[in-house]
Specification:
This is EamA family transporter. It is found in: Membrane. Keywords: Membrane, Transmembrane, Transmembrane helix. It is built from eight helices and no strands. The protein has 146 residues and is mainly alpha-helical. The chain has two domains: 83 residues, no CATH class; 60 residues. Helix 2 crosses helix 4. It is extended, with a radius of gyration of 20 Å.
Length: 146
Amino acid sequence: ALSWSACNLIVKQTRPGYMVAFIVWSSLFAAPPLFFMTWLAKGTAPFYQLGSNLTPSAIFSVLFQAYVTTLFGYRVWNNLMKKYPSAMVAPLSLMVPISGVTTAWLMFDESIGPYKLASIVLILLGIAVFINAAPINHWLRARAVR
């Protein structure tokens, strides 16, 4: 969350012109600390076992994370952060778990139980209320005047 916030602040302050280059450079900057933290927490075993755990599903997941999630997702997100006030864009980050659940359902046939479905509906309702707060407020004021 701290890194996400820091990146959002950097995008708001610098307003990078070519977003893909910004994303690639920021991703390269993140790799060394992640490798170091993995080494601290797990030792060298994960690095030696990496090749033996590469299944087609794992390769697809890595490619999906690298290209679809990172390049497309962060490009869209950062362009929104660059163009609109943070208060308007930030609530849309609640769509992240919904996209994760939906992708798992579409790609890996993971079930969506009633609790997940109810959670998705509540999140979408919350976002809808937030996005439509001004018209709802206007409507409520108009009704109160009567």
